[in-house]
Amino acid sequence: QVQLVESGGGSVQPGGSLRLSCVFSGFFFSSHRMSWYRQAPGKERELVARISSGGASTNYADSVKGRFTISRDNAKKMVYLQMNSLKPEDTAVYYCNAQESRSTGLYDYWGQGTQVTVSS
Predict the structure, then answer these.
(1) Do the beta carbons of residue 15 and residue 85 sit within 8 Å?
(2) Read out DSSP for 56-115?
(3) Is the pLDDT of residue 1 over 90?
(4) Are 21 and 80 in contact (CB under 8 A)?
(5) Which helix (H) or strand (E) holds 120?
(6) pLDDT tens sequence across 38-53
């Protein structure tokens, strides 16, 4: 069973930086595609950034391109989201997601979320 635990959220002023971390418990971390999603109050959950199982490919939402960087350490079973030049509209609960592709379909696992608040 996969378990994900996020950390690193908090409150920061506009223009500041935060680094989110997600620790993966379970087997075959390196076979999971990892993503960060976020959900602001009253809005749907949205994809922020995604990294392939091997780490060679990344994708970002247009709203965070050039400001956020996703990375992973397969040896440590960790995934990170470096967030720079934060804006008030980045305020949300950020969720770590692990996705595994099996012959029977796609399987998603979620962390409990970590709050990020950007405010002056």
Answers:
(1) yes
(2) S-EEE-TTTTTTEEEEEETTTTEEEEEE-S--GGG-EEEEEEEEEEETTEEEEEE---EE
(3) no
(4) yes
(5) none
(6) 999 999 999 999 999 9
